[in-house]
C-alpha cells in the first residue's frame, strides 16, 4: 500500500524575500505564503489575508534544511518535524506568534512551542 504525502512548495527564490512560519518553521517566499498559505498550518488561512502572512511568518531565522521524508528522517525527528509535510524548514526562529495567533492554535487543538529565548 502506497501513501501519498502532499509536499510543501519549494521556495522559488533564496534571497531576502524568504519567510518562515513562526509555528512550524516551513520556509517559502512571502508570495508563496500569500498565494497558498502554510501546508502545515492551514488554520491560519494565510492565503486569505496578507496581514496574516505578516503576523505568522518572519524573515529572521537561521539555517535551512530540506526534508523529503520527515517521518523517516532522524534529523526531522530530532528537530520535531516528523509529522510535517516534506519541504524546506528553518533550524531556528526567534520571533513568537502573537497572542491572537496562539489562540487560533489553541482553538484548533494544535500545539505551539514558542522559541527558546537566549
Automatic annotation (TrEMBL):
Protein name listed in UniProt: Transcription elongation factor SPT4 homolog
Domain (Spt4/RpoE2 zinc finger): give its ranges. Answer: 18-94
Which species is listed as the source?
Helianthus annuus (Common sunflower)
SUPFAM superfamilies, per this entry?
Answer: RNA polymerase subunits (SSF63393)
CDD domains per record: Spt4
Q: Which GO annotations describe the biological process of this protein?
A: regulation of DNA-templated transcription; transcription elongation by RNA polymerase II; transcription elongation-coupled chromatin remodeling
Pull one GO CC term from this UniProt entry.
DSIF complex
MF terms in GO: RNA polymerase II complex binding; zinc ion binding
Please give the Pfam families that the UniProt record associates with this protein.
Answer: Spt4
Q: Which family does it belong to?
A: Belongs to the SPT4 family.
Answer whether the UniProt record assigns the keyword Kinase to this protein.
no
Residues making up the signal peptide according to the UniProt record: none
- Its main localization is nucleus
- What's its job? May regulate transcription elongation by RNA polymerase II. May enhance transcriptional pausing at sites proximal to the promoter, which may in turn facilitate the assembly of an elongation competent RNA polymerase II complex.
- Keyword terms, alphabetized: Metal-binding, Nucleus, Transcription, Zinc, Zinc-finger
Q: Where does this polypeptide localize?
A: Nucleus
Q: Give the matching PANTHER family.
A: SUPPRESSOR OF TY 4, TRANSCRIPTION ELONGATION FACTOR SPT4
Amino acid at each position: 500500500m502506497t501513501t501519498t504525502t502532499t509536499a510543501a512548495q519549494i521556495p522559488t527564490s533564496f534571497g531576502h524575500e524568504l519567510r518562515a512560519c513562526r509555528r512550524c518553521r516551513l520556509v517559502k517566499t512571502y508570495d508563496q505564503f500569500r498565494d497558498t498559505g502554510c501546508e502545515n498550518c492551514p488554520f491560519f488561512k494565510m492565503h486569505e489575508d496578507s496581514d496574516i502572512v505578516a503576523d505568522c511568518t518572519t524573515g529572521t531565522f537561521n539555517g535551512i534544511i530540506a526534508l523529503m521524508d520527515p517521518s523517516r528522517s532522524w534529523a526531522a525527528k530530532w528537530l520535531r518535524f516528523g509529522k510535517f509535510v516534506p519541504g524546506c524548514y528553518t533550524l531556528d526562529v526567534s520571533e513568537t506568534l502573537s497572542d491572537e495567533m496562539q489562540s487560533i492554535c489553541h482553538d484548533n487543538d494544535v500545539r505551539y512551542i514558542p522559541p527558546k529565548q537566549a
